[in-house]
Amino acid sequence: MAHRVTLKPSGHSFEVSEGQNILQAGLDAGFMLPYSCRTGVCRTCRGTLLEGRVDYGAVHPTYLPDSDKAKGYALLCEARPLSDVVVEVHELAGMASIRPRKIPCRVEKIERPAPDVAILQLRLPITCSAPSSCATCCASKARWGPSSCARNPTSRS
Ligand code: FES
Fold first, then answer.
1. pLDDT in tens, 83-141
2. Distance from the CA of 42 to the center of ligand 1, in angstroms?
């Protein structure tokens, strides 16, 4: 059974399907809720339950002790509503216009500081506002080359 979650102070609200956590449902509904690990460890997603009941999920007591639950805190990446709920949470302002996008990039460097860790240094393509006839760096082979364009030095994205 779906439950309605209302966010305070914004008043935004959305449905959470059976078994779904509040964070994912909120993100799916287009609201910019804070999060990082999504596994109940970082506490970035912590909100305060003002009304209703939740299943707190499989959160280790280190990250959400009973004393925090008594204060109304819940980790929204793990919390599943058991009724309609009202949650106080600081939504991220000004992020609505920023959407993830896929862009091609080149792997410039790979470091392996440990056997199971790789650090990738990526080079993004040049975004240039110069006319497409610019022969300095708009030729396809130069798109990945110079770190700045001779005609438009601030054109890197
Ligand atoms: S996102 Fe890290 S604890 Fe919820």
1. 999 999 999 887 767 777 788 889 999 999 999 999 999 998 876 555 555 555 555 44
2. 5
Considering its fold, how many domains does the chain have in total?
2
The domain of 134 spans 125-157
Let me know: does 149 contact 137? Beta carbons within 8 Å.
yes
Supply the CATH number for residue 57's domain.
3.10.20.30
pTM to 2 decimals? 0.66
As for ligand 1, residues whose beta carbon falls within 6 Å of it are: 35-38, 40-45, 75, 77
Is 113 inside a domain boundary? no
Q: Is 15 inside any structural domain?
A: yes
Residue 114: phi and psi, rounded to 5, are: -150, 160
Which of 59, 63, 77, 89 maximizes ligand 1 atoms within 8 Å of its Cβ, making it the mutation to test the pocket? 77
90 to 7, 13, 57, 62, 106: CA distances (angstroms): 9, 14, 21, 23, 36
Nearest atom (ligand 1) to Cα of 45: 4
> Which atom of ligand 1 is nearest to 43's Cα?
3
